[in-house]
Design a protein that fits this description.
This protein has a 5-stranded parallel beta sheet with strand order 2-3-1-4-5, with helices on both faces. The chain is of the alpha/beta class. It contains 10 helices and 5 strands. Helix 2 packs across helix 5, helix 3 packs antiparallel against helix 5 and helix 6 crosses helix 7.
């Protein structure tokens, strides 16, 4: 996986409920394009023939209904009980998402001063290696669970704890990221975002990462 140095590419990552999307909304308000990898992964699982065939061959034809719609509940039941199956799922989906992202970068590189990729599994999938700078969004587990349950009351605490346990910890992500923003509702995150936005426009960062654009 290699970097496209035509434009500065920033990663934003964090566990479920950490508030990645909230921070990305601020960057969007600053007129920066954001690629939501989790959204596009779900979209590609419904529309990409390579992924659909791979999922059917690996997990059975029942993972899609007669209308070609993905049975997410069935697939989740299969993969979250078996790490090997989850690895199989990621091996099918991630390469197609990477390729889709590369196309998105090529389309948008001339339109913005820098681009952002938002993804929960940025380090786990190794997609961070194609980026120049990664921001980790950290938040206490209790707040993360409360946030997710507020937007989706059907999610149980046990289910969410299971998902969190399979993701990197905030501390592990912080070791790999260039910057950590604490989005606990108490810290003033807006100024941190504005400072980063300014930093991403400076000649120093373009020189540091050999950006050619």
């Amino acid at each position: 996986m290699t970097k496209n140095n035509q434009i500065l590419q920033i990663g934003i990552t964090g566990g479920i409920g950490s508030g990645k999307s909230t921070i990305c909304k601020v960057f969007k308000a600053l007129d920066i394009a954001v690629y939501d990898a989790d959204y596009w992964a779900k979209w590609l699982m419904e529309h990409n023939s390579s992924i659909k065939n791979g999922l059917k061959n690996t997990f059975g034809v029942d993972v899609y209904n007669e209308k070609g719609q993905l049975n997410r509940s069935l697939l989740s039941t299969i993969v979250f009980k078996d790490p090997a199956q989850l690895k199989e799922l990621n091996a099918i989906v991630h390469p197609e998402v990477f390729a889709h992202y590369d196309q998105w970068v090529a389309t948008n590189a001339s339109k913005y001063p820098y681009l952002i990729k938002e993804a929960a599994l940025m380090f786990e999938s190794n997609s961070y290696k194609a980026l120049h700078y990664v921001i980790n969004v950290a938040c206490p587990t209790s707040i993360r669970i409360a946030r997710v349950q507020k937007r989706d009351p059907n999610r149980t605490e046990t289910e969410l704890q299971s998902i969190i346990s399979k993701q990197m910890s905030d501390e592990e992500r912080a070791q790999l990221a260039q910057k950590t923003i604490h989005n606990d509702g108490q810290s003033g995150i807006l100024q941190s975002i504005l400072d980063l936005h300014h930093f991403f426009h400076t000649p120093e960062i373009l020189k540091n990462y050999a950006i050619q654009g």
